[in-house]
Amino acid sequence: MGTAYEKMAGEYLKTQGYEILQYNFRCRMGEIDIIAKDHGYLVFIEVKYRRDKSCGHPAEAVTPRKQRTISKVASYYLLTHGCGMDTPCRFDVAAVSGDEVELIKNAFEYQGYL
After folding, report:
1. Residues spanned by the domain of 84
2. What protein family does this chain belong to (predicted)?
């Protein structure tokens, strides 16, 4: 089911001018749902879905622990794809509620290896 919402978020991102580079980048440290380019930034996007907001906003599920995991995986992506650590990057969240996508740009900062 998550794949369908990731594709839905990806289609929305395309309408916002994002160039999707990859879905579901995985390594031993974890996964990033979508990697894209947006206005000179390499963007790592976490997609979170909730049927409705009665159980909270989907973005609330991107906890500090999840942010650290995404940051580690992003570092690995940069290393393995020939990108320098000076590559401008951003971490966005695509919060899906029902059939509505809300994009939160720069949802969190790089968390490093805390």
Report:
1. 2-108
2. Belongs to the UPF0102 family.
What b/e readout covers 5-44, taking b as 16+ CB neighbours within 10 angstroms? bbebbbebbeeeebebeebebeeeebebbbbbebeebbbb
CATH number at residue 88: 3.40.1350.10
For residue 30, being part of any structural domain is answered with: yes
Alpha-carbon distance of 100 to 62, in angstroms, equals 18
SS3 77: helix
pTM: 0.92
79 domain residue, yes or no: yes
Dump pLDDT digits (tens) for 27-59.
999 999 999 999 999 999 999 988 766 677 788
Distance CA 87, CA 14 (A): 21
